[in-house]
Amino acid sequence: MKLKILSVDFNFENENVDNSIFEDQISFIDYDAVVIDPKNILNKWFNNLNVFHKRDGTSWLYSDYDGGLSESLRSLMEKRKEESELLTKRNQGIVVCFLRSVGEKLNCSRGQYAKYKSDINRYSWVPIMYDDYKRGYDLSDYIKNRSGKEIGKIYEAHPFAEYIKNFKDEIRYEAVLDEKIFSQYKDILSILQPIATNKAGELVAFEIAFGNGKFIFLPPVMQPTDNKKLAGIIISCIKNITNAPQLDSPPPWIANYSLPGDNELSPQLDEIREKEDKLKTEREEIEKKGYRLNLFKSLLYGNGKYILEPAVREAFKIIGFNVLDPDAYNEEYDLFATEVDLSIIGEIEGSIGQIDVKKYRQLLDYVSNATLEGKKCKGLLIGNGFLGKDPNTRPEQFTEKAITGCRTQNFCRITTFELFKAVKRVLASSNDLKIKESIMKAILSCNGDFNLSSLDIK
Fold first, then answer.
1. Rg of the Cα trace of the chain?
2. What domains lie within the chain, and their CATH numbers?
3. Residue 65 has what DSSP assignment?
4. What percent of the chain has pLDDT over 70?
5. Model pLDDT for residues 384-424, shown as the tens digit of each residue
6. CA count, 13 A, side-chain hemisphere, 88
7. What is the pTM of this model?
8. Which residues, 6+ apart, have CB-to-CB distance to 161 below 8 Å?
9. Could you tell me which of 251, 242, 232 has the C-alpha nearest to residue 88?
């Protein structure tokens, strides 16, 4: 049987699809599937002269002088909500909706001073969902604004995975399913199927079973390069999902009836799940190692408190220094490490040119104050000068004033390139303690320019 598909507020270039607008009289229940883009729902009414835009950013309609607009909008939303429910629950139909942000809400009041009010948003046409305990929830309460373009995991088994895979590079999601829904409605997992996530694991595409039908939420494709292809893929996904066998929840007594192969499947699945868990753990460990190595590489090009400074602290840790995390001390030091009776204070700077005297003065101030408090200190000026150049081609990275200042105060001056070399040497020796101790001793005794090649390390 040929599927009847209606596209609402989304122009499908396909001769087998009827195109309509949200406020049209065409009923959803005349179709097997409805594809809807809620992007422009309500937008055309926000500019109506009867809509009041308050200073707090909210928009209002008052039924006592809006010319019946609020009542007509309520009526329209209730009509589409009822049609969506009938299409899915009774007709086993499908609603495919592009997952947009909830957007601005239009507040409707029975009067300017009335206590009763309601709001209308892009998803006011979606029926109230119910869990197994008959608790109703409004899906729009769990749609969270989150924009991005990178897709994480795709659940290949779902028929609409085809849409995600075909348009992965063109997708620009603008909303995700708020994970609060899983804690507040724990049994929602029985009716929800994931389709795709973003890099953080948040759902950007998912299916919710509703009666005998389904709601499918998909991230939109921004400015599709081929509208006909887009229409064809979505129609193909709809056909695949309608042709897939649908299984109701089995009654308890079904356990008394078995088929050949039943007993073999569970152990096989358990074995596969065990392998998956092991592979996941191994992958996470490899990813952690890869992240750490990339962090060390950022010593050569990084800058600032969120890139260069964490990399320097991690480098000093792997060399063997007892480096404290910034939230473990009150001072503004970029680097702070302790060795028995010695406080090691470091200032870190990345620059497109030379590291000037400003950072040296900051370091001098910190060391002087700590010394006045009775602490024995070692100052380190750590620089990534000319960070846009290949480290092997960089000239002197510190200004003459910074060099002179460090020399007079017995501060160690070290480039992040030399620090990178030190990290590389430690990693190559499988964290040999003697090599670590040699590098640490050299840094602590350095009263000028630290150079790894000058050390007698075997």
1. 32
2. 5-243 (3.40.50), 297-454 (3.40.1350.10)
3. S
4. 93
5. 999 989 999 999 999 999 999 999 999 999 999 999 999 99
6. 23
7. 0.56
8. 154, 155, 195, 196
9. 242
